[in-house]
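Help! Submission page says 'invalid entity' but I think these are all valid:
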Amino acid sequence: MLEWPYPIRYYTLNKVDVDVLVVGGGMAGCWAAIRAARRGVKVAIAEKASVIRSGAAGSGIDHWQHAATNPCSKVAPEELTEAEVEHCGGYTNGIVRYIRCRDAWDTLLEMERMGAKIRDTEDEFKGAPFRDDETKLLFAYDYENKFTLRVWGTTFKPALFNECRRLGVDIFNRVMITSLLLSNDGKEARIAGAIGVDQLTGELYVFRAKAVVLSTGVSTRLWSFIDPVGLSSFYPPNETGDGIAMAWKIGAMLTLMESSGPAAGIGIFSWPSFGIGNPANTWYPCRIVDSKGREVPFVDRDGRPLRTPDEVTKPSPGQKFMLIGGSIYSGRGSHKYLGPRITPNLSELVEKGELTPPFYADLPSMPEHERKAIFGLMVGQEGKTNIPIYYNYTRAGFDPDKDMLQAYWQYGSETKWLDWFGKVPANFRDSAVGSGSKGGLVVDWNLKTNIEGLYAAGCIIAGSAAASCAATSGRWAGAKAADYAKSASAPSINWSEVDEEEKRIYSLIEREEGICWKELNAGICRVMREYCGDYKNEDLLNIGLIWIKEIKEKEAKELYARNPHELIRALEVLNILVIAEIVLHASLARRASSEYLGFYRLDYPQLDPPEWRKFITIRNEGGTVKIGELPFNYWLKPPFKSSYQENYEVYKPW
Amino acid sequence: MVKKVYMQPNEPPYRPIIFDPKVCDGCNKCVEVCTMNVLMPNPEKGKPPIVLYPDECWYGGCCVKECPKFEEGAIKLNFPLWYRPRWIRKETRESFRIGSPNPPPPNLKPPVGGWKPKP
């Protein structure tokens, strides 16, 4: 057996003093660090992987949603934000969505100055209906309204990483933050910093910081821990809700934690992401044909058959604009904004013999500019596509001019676009994929949590969505955190908290046998699938909580790690255990079903009854679970202003 | 001569990352960028990294993307057998897949904007 390749430094403690600590260096975290550093404060990023390619957007992004202020957009930011909120049934976050609609274009321009590619400077798409020939910008989905851009997203993270370095941001790669520290010098709880552990050496870091920005992304591996474990999640499987777990421990307020959707393309059920023929998202508006070459029709929101691609890329008659194509929210949402999708009676057409599987993505029949935009630009720039799909497929001989890639359709798959990615049993849930209502932290217009000095950015914010939301919220939160840090006094670290955390972390490596991280992760997921799955009731959820309590008292105390890598994985699973408990409590608290939240209570079957159209909040108050509520549109109610524009003007950090 | 047989534990059945030791010079860029910390530097300098945790691979391809010699084949992202989509050539109806025994010639066209797109 080979010895561990890095020096082992358990119990070594490094002290780092900064103004702003950013936890998680993905799209949101990098932007937070950049905007904080530009205000002249000392900034550090602690990143569990490596900043240059970390996070959900690290390997790429194919489209930049809702840049409503770009010169070609025909929809105003206010209108687009209201549409998003309505489309999510109200269960989302109007603050980050409005900030995105206002700032996504400026953010893109800034990234272009850093070296990212956002326009067709080589004139590859000259004359295409989705191109503006003056600005050379390319648009996606709704070619008439032009608020979502096609971009070369593989260039984004390296550009942001270089900008962070240029600005002197201290980058701590392979450091997982495990807990937040509170200052005990004032009356009110206030952030004092955080503790982290190094995945290569096992040494500890104590960051003293006046402000912390949490940008750790989504919570994966909560229902699905499946062979091979690296494919347990559509999102990066190292996004284990660490930020939510550590914020929960110090009393931060969360909401929408009961929300979930079916997992897409995980483990042995999965196909390479965006690497099979399909009609949605990255592949929109690709024509799908059956084995005899007959077209599988797209239909508009009213079931009217459409011709690809011209009719699929514009709103229906009488519709002002559409939100994405291919019904990204599984056909739910507001009729007003629904885009075209594959006919919802595909199974019926197959039963009647009118269409015969296998189905194929008929790229060769598409106009050249569409084919090149789908396979060449979008598949080539989206997350996990540049090497896995574009490079691997073309080297294996795939030629989009000649070849039709199979679309692995199964009975019933037409109704949910995610099923086209590899259908999984319904109790394999996911807290983030395809949801406009993912759970997370409650924030105000400063993107501050209820904890003094604690800010949030990206998918950790309840109701946040996608890369452009991550970037714009990161930009805003970073500036706000820097301004706060400038006015705040130096916090004092409570060293007994550090000692306790040190003991908790290293107890895992002191133990030489017991239960390994994989078994614990898989066990928690089994509890979540059986007791908090696609259908829930009070008895099921309560047994789930008994399970979690037992695991906390028994198996979690038997968890062991044999090296720093396993130590990180084990600490992640302990966070997953925390999140599982929160989700179970939040699920008990919502005594109604909700279509928008993918939340079905057998004991309260009515979908979205008026009295439950609100946010259920959940908070840990000194070990007791506190349930509360917030009204829909709380961001437009006192103490805030009543319109999006006014709030933007009052709170904008620039 | 009878081949020696050992009591070997099961290994993860997948080989997500395959290095070509003739091309890879052990620069460890892939080790540095991996999201899941799957790769470890080889104790012997200049040799390809060790794929220590193949089951944790997310198949994101960043290791290949950051490799200065990926087009020379220093590192390959290798899909498990159950993860290999098929396609047909429209004109001839020939059927292929990732890893076909008789693959068509490679398509060497780079993505729009090239492998290193410029603003």
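Support: the input was valid. A stray whitespace character was the problem, and the output above is from the cleaned input. The beta strands of chain B are 17-19, 39-40, 50-51, 75-77, 86-89, 95-97.
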